[in-house]
Write a structure and sequence with these properties.
Elements lengths: L9 E5 L5 H14 L8 H9 L10 E7 L3 E16 L2 E13 L8 H15 L4 E4 L6 H6 L3 E12 L2 H8 L3 H23 L6 E5 L7 H9 L4 E3 L3 H9 L6 E9 L2 E13 L5 E11 L6 H15 L4 E6 L5 H8 L2 E12 L26
């Protein structure tokens, strides 16, 4: 339906069954307008919202409906549930996702009204806090609505095929050659240097998701951080196995003297619309850093496997107060970009001030709401 007059009334409403297709169209149209690949279909929506491992809360999905010849979704603000470990207690949290308003209805208060309506529902349902990694468009609006910036995540990349990446990034042939030669030298040198800093007593073996010992993950994370998304078996299955995109994942267990000292999950994703780049995404990297050389040994293994699987780039992110931050930096990963991480309190803090302290948080690429 074409919108002829944006002065017509729009109304804030909560989600009702049947709104899914309009929501999907709104999200996909916005992605295409920004030159991105349309990701959503009904299976993906059901996975992300309806079949979420922490439950389905329809009233946490708030919409703006344009009242014309037929109702049309022109605004969307949603929060999906998640369980957060906070000072060794499990609390109900939420993650703000898929924030957008149709171009023709921006600067009309749509975002603010439906966001505040959503927050009222979260307070009523005793949600402790909400988190998100906002994009540049939504970040200023969230800050105005009381969200607090907790940290800035650094996006890291280890370039395997510099030629393919530089062809994509640079138009000038000479710039491509210079960049390729410089990057190849840097990575060959750092790879050789870091190989000798590993630990030959560490063993890395492939396992299935359901073989991960959740108590070990909880122990490693809680010994270093106060806040992180609780990685239950149900959560890991939902996050990595139930996703309808069905992308290739590699799950590994790390042992030292027959003791499990960590796990990692890498997802391989192809980008045919971006010069056929294949990226190895480090979704989870949870290691006992008291074991000497563990990060270098594991990163060497990840990169070696990524080369076999024809990946162009190994990608992850971390922040300055996280144990793996220096490992990426000194191993030879380049800083590619940054990503803000913000938190909004929904209840009285009651000693939960650590939720707003960067050193309290463990984050991983797996914590993003994107598959």
């Amino acid at each position: 339906m074409k919108i002829k007059n944006t002065d017509k009334i729009w109304s804030p409403v909560t989600f009702k069954d049947g709104n899914q297709n309009d929501i999907i169209s709104l999200i996909n149209n916005d992605a295409q307008n920004r030159g991105s690949k349309a990701l959503f279909d009904i299976d993906y929506w059901n996975w992300k919202y309806k079949n979420n491992s922490a439950g389905f809360f329809p009233k946490w999905i708030n919409l703006a409906l344009y009242r014309g010849e037929e109702d049309l979704v022109i605004g969307h603000y949603a929060v999906i549930p998640l369980i957060i470990s906070s000072n060794n207690k499990l609390i109900l949290g939420g993650q703000s996702v898929d924030i957008l308003t149709s171009n023709k209805f921006r600067n009309q208060g749509v975002f603010t009204e439906i966001a505040n309506n959503c927050y009222k529902e979260l307070v009523e349902d005793k949600v402790s806090c909400a988190i998100t990694f906002p994009n540049e468009r939504s970040y200023p609006g969230l800050i105005k609505l009381g969200w607090k910036k907790v940290l800035t995540a650094t996006e890291y990349g280890y370039i395997i095929d510099a030629n393919k990446l530089t062809k994509y990034k640079y138009n000038s042939f000479h710039k491509r050659i210079i960049a390729f030669l410089a990057l190849r030298f840097i990575y060959q040198f750092t790879s050789a240097l870091n190989y000798f800093k590993g630990n030959k007593l560490l063993k890395i073996n492939s396992i299935e998701i359901d073989e991960i010992d959740i108590t070990i993950i909880q122990s490693i994370l809680s010994s270093n951080y106060k806040c992180f998304i609780h990685r239950s078996k149900e959560y890991l299955k939902w996050r990595y196995l139930d996703c309808p995109l069905k992308e290739e994942i590699s799950v590994k267990k790390i042992t030292y003297n027959n003791t499990v000292v960590g796990y990692y999950i890498v997802k391989y994703k192809d980008y045919p619309h971006r010069n056929n780049v294949r990226i190895a995404h480090i979704m989870e990297l949870i290691l006992d850093d008291s074991v000497k050389g563990i990060y270098n040994t594991v990163l060497n293994k990840i990169i070696a496997e990524a080369k076999i699987k024809k990946a162009t780039l190994v990608y992850s992110y971390s922040h300055t107060n996280q144990n793996d931050f220096k490992a990426y930096k000194y191993f030879g990963f380049l800083k590619l970009d940054k990503k803000e991480f913000v938190v909004k309190n929904m209840q009285d803090t009651n000693g939960e001030d650590h939720l707003f302290e960067s050193e309290s948080w463990f984050i991983s690429q797996g914590d993003s709401d994107r598959a």
